[in-house]
Amino acid sequence: MNTSEIETRAKKVIAGVLKVDEGVIKPDTNFVFDLGADSQQSVQLVCAFEEEFGIEMPMERATEIQNVAGAVEFIAELVNEAA
């Protein structure tokens, strides 16, 4: 799975969990400062990413991710390890 496909799918997940328009989600979009995610929503995002991509994200690393590009990079790393 390539990075572009991961980014597209991740944006759909983010839009769904945080109830925002996909159009406002860019690689440098910060989950907390730009999209208003709180700690509960951050956990929901991690769970939604795990379900969408069939991966397991270590929570300690996942909670350090602050923007979309970081999430896409981390997901790509995990997807490629699982392949």
Features:
single chain, mainly alpha, 83 residues
SSE ordering: HHHH
Oligomer: single chain
Number of strands: 0
Helical amount? 55-70%
Strand residue content: under 5%
Please tell me the total number of domains: 1
CATH architecture: Orthogonal Bundle
- Give start-end ranges of low-pLDDT stretches: none
Distance between the termini: 9 Å
Specify the CATH class: Mainly Alpha
Q: Write down the overall geometry.
A: globular
Mean pLDDT over all positions:
95
CATH topology: Non-ribosomal Peptide Synthetase Peptidyl Carrier Protein, Chain A
Number of helical regions: 4
Category by helix and strand content: mainly alpha
Main β-sheet, in a few words? Answer: none
CATH homologous superfamily descriptor: ACP-like
Query: Rounded to an integer, what's the Rg over CA atoms?
Result: 11 Å
Helix-strand layout with pairing:
Layout: H1 3-18, H2 39-53, H3 59-62, H4 68-82
Helix pairs in contact: 1-2, 1-4
Describe this structure in words.
The chain is mostly helical and 83 residues long. It has a single domain, classed as Non-ribosomal Peptide Synthetase Peptidyl Carrier Protein, Chain A (Orthogonal Bundle), CATH 1.10.1200. The chain is 60% helix and 0% strand. The longest helix is centred in the N-terminal third of the chain and has 16 residues, at 3-18. The model has no long low-confidence stretch (mean pLDDT 95).
